[in-house]
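TA notes, week 10

Several of you asked for a full example with nothing omitted. So below is the full record: structure tokens for the whole chain, then the designed sequence directly under it. When grading your own attempts, check the secondary structure regions first.
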């Protein structure tokens, strides 16, 4: 939900920054303002902005001053963080405003009790990026994590101050279908008052194509209509409308928000994934938000390049592995017609390595606090992104040890929670447990990650492909009624490393691996998607089994093609988006 109506003060730019390795900032009241800060840029992770902060996964403080014009007195100020982490505590003018756990979702804090209009204000933020087993995703230390992406810290997405009236639009839920149904649900924040909600729909040329209004009842207004002559949204024609919603109190428009929406339907039926009633095939990548220097912040220009590269290579889809991406990232997916599997931050690939005692591992899943946290993170993710036409599916976990009953139970609960929050989208999770997985029965679409020919059968692509065929058939035989997506398959390639015959780590090995996998998998009629791991190389913790980067990118970290990009481009472009189309 965006708002051009609300007055906004952008707090991106240079801030002051100070590490707090002894955790002394709070007792020493750094929240009233601290000395000795050094410059840092927001939004971006802290690590690569200064080599001496690079390997720091601890507590650090940010501060900056800003002026608020007198005219804004009486408005309700909201401090909005689009993403900061892992854990953030926020003070304004020395007054504690609130805290938030989780790096990848937006949070907003009411700043009324501390903000001074017509004066300077001091904003101080304490970020705690320590790794621990009860955090999501879990870790023990900088280089000991349940995941292989680098645990960057800091305020890596934009921060701003936004002003509303006492009554404001708190939440907007939009549900459409490709035949022109539109359902808009508006929740109004602030004291209960008599109010109306005006809904306008504008097409791409900003012509108003629909306008109506609804009364609020108990702080909620609902409007449901069937519109004629609507142009549906699809990867081939990602047509967006802008939905404007105004809140009217006592005849005055007191708030306004807008959302870019598309009319599309998604459904899983008869073993197929249907988009607008047609069987659709997802071609694309697992991605990461990762870039040199900016860390977990992907600058707009990089995002634009990424989408053009993905288009050119014939992709129409990606998974937000392994956490919800930024609004800018997903705005472009809506605009460019990408089908997104939106994933929670519950990435558990290496949890078994952190908890080698099976009893401990089982206990982790039985901890109600961890489940509650995962649910909360899923809830925030859904609230932020549910209205996007690009988001067609939720992935609740990545690579859990779901051969264990306790873990399967955890996934069941999480999936049920997500389904209750948004029953309009299918649910999946990325499994690497194949037919041993005890949680596949709880999801609508089966997602599988495979690395035969890399982590096993290494150096032998053909042996890997044989194994792959066997395993995928086994899962299909167990769940013949469910569509399968291969959410990960890939091999590492160091740019410039060539070999004949194709040996591991060479560009040729990666290209051949992806060619053989893609060819074999694309012909299976029950497979509805292929996501290569990964779109681009990304930074990892330092371990003996990684070369600081995960090299499975088809593009390098600075977004140049490897040999495999040319192979994948041919393959992907020969697979039609809709399975009822011939190639
Ligand atoms: C899978 C994980 C992914 C890793 C990938 C790899 O889901 O996050 O980056 O393997 O090892 O286990 O490259």
């Amino acid at each position: 939900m965006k708002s051009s109506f609300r007055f906004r003060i952008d707090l991106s730019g240079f801030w002051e920054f100070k590490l707090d390795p002894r955790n002394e900032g709070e007792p020493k009241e750094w929240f009233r303002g601290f000395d000795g800060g050094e410059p840092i840029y927001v939004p971006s992770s802290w690590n690569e902005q200064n080599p001496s902060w690079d390997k720091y996964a601890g507590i650090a403080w940010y501060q900056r001053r800003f002026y608020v014009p007198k005219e804004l007195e009486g408005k309700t100020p909201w401090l909005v963080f689009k993403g900061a982490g892992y854990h953030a505590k926020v003070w304004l003018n020395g007054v504690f405003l609130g805290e938030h756990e989780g790096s990848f979702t937006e949070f907003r804090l009411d700043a009324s009790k501390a903000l001074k209009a017509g004066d300077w204000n001091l904003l101080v933020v304490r970020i705690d990026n320590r790794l621990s087993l009860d955090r999501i995703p879990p870790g023990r230390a900088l280089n000991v994590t349940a995941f292989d992406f680098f645990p960057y810290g800091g305020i890596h997405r934009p921060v701003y101050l936004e002003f509303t009236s006492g009554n404001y639009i708190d939440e907007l839920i939009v549900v459409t279908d490709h035949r022109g149904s539109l359902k808009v649900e508006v929740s109004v924040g602030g004291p209960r008052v008599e109010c109306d909600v005006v809904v306008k729909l504008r097409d791409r040329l900003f012509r108003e194509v629909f306008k109506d209004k609804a009364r609020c009842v108990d702080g909620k207004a609902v409007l449901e209509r069937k519109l004629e002559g609507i142009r549906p949204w699809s990867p081939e024609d990602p047509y967006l409308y802008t939905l404007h919603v105004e809140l009217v109190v006592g005849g005055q428009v007191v708030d306004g928000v807008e959302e870019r929406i598309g009319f599309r339907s998604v459904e899983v039926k008869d073993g197929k994934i249907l988009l607008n009633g047609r069987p659709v095939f997802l071609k694309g990548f697992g991605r990461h938000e990762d870039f040199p220097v900016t860390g977990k912040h992907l600058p707009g220009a990089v995002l634009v390049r990424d989408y053009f590269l993905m288009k050119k290579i014939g992709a129409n889809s990606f998974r937000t592995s392994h956490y919800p991406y930024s609004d800018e990232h997903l705005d472009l997916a809506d605009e460019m017609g990408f089908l997104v599997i939106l994933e929670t931050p519950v990435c558990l690939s290496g949890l078994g390595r952190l908890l080698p005692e099976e009893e401990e591992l089982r206990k982790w899943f039985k901890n109600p606090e961890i489940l509650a946290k995962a649910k909360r993170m899923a809830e925030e993710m859904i609230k932020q992104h549910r209205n996007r036409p690009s988001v067609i599916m939720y992935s609740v976990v990545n690579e859990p040890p779901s051969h264990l009953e306790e873990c399967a139970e955890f996934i069941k609960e999480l999936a049920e929670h997500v389904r209750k929050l948004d029953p309009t989208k299918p649910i999946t999770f990325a499994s690497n447990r194949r037919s041993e997985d005890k949680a596949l029965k709880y999801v609508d679409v089966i997602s599988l990650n495979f690395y035969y020919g890399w982590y096993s059968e290494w150096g032998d692509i053909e042996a890997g492909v044989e194994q792959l065929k066997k395993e995928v058939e086994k899962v299909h035989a167990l769940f013949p009624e469910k569509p399968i997506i291969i959410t990960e398959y890939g091999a590492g390639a160091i740019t410039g490393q060539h070999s004949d015959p194709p040996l591991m780590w060479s560009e040729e090995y990666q290209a051949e691996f992806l060619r053989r996998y893609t060819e074999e998998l694309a012909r299976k009629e029950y497979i509805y998607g292929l996501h290569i791991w990964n779109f681009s190389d990304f930074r990892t913790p330092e371990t003996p089994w990684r070369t600081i980067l995960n090299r499975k990118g088809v593009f390098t970290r600075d977004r140049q093609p490897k040999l495999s990009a040319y192979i994948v481009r041919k393959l992907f472009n020969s697979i039609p988006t809709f399975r009822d189309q011939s190639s």
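The mean pLDDT is 97. Use that as a sanity check on your answer.
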